[in-house]
Amino acid sequence: MASHDIAQLALELEADGEASFLVRHSSPVLVGQGVVGQLEEEQSKKRRGRTIGVSMSLDELAAQPVSLKNRVWEIRRDGPRAEGVPISVGRVAGNDVVIPEYSVSEHHCAFRWHKSRWMLSDLGSMNGTVLDSQRLEPFSQVAVPDGALVALGRYQFRFWLPKSFLGVLSPPR
Q1: Which of 77, 107, 120, 170 has the fewest CB atoms in 10 Å of its CB?
Q2: What does pLDDT average to in each consecutive run of 10 residues of the chain (173 residues)?
Q3: Three-state DSSP class for residue 19
């Protein structure tokens, strides 16, 4: 799925109203927050076209990349949502959600709708997947709470369920 600009989605919500917006955007989202780690420069020169190593620091949020900050990715695949069917996230085409960044592995992680909640698993990625400051063990599944911080490679995202995302798009005045 292609990403959206958060400002465009806010305008769409304002123009169409909550009910219509939720019909079109009924999946949870990842919203780009910014950089959480620094690239390992030695590897960046050697690994053109492959995943680049990153040293993670969730305590210090570095400069905000224009390309991913406030970008929104819907966590969905084409067709109806099915219990337990993975929604893949990675750097390359063929994933359900594509994040074009070299610190994100080709096939980085997967979300699953399981027993009325969203689950997340790392797919053995080079830089790992971090959920609310806890690094996931490869191939284990953990529940993803609404509003959780998810780090993939050197980027941090916020996970929002659809109704909570409405509040992000139209904060109280």
Answers
A1: 170
A2: 90 96 96 75 48 50 60 88 86 94 95 95 97 96 98 96 95 68
A3: helix
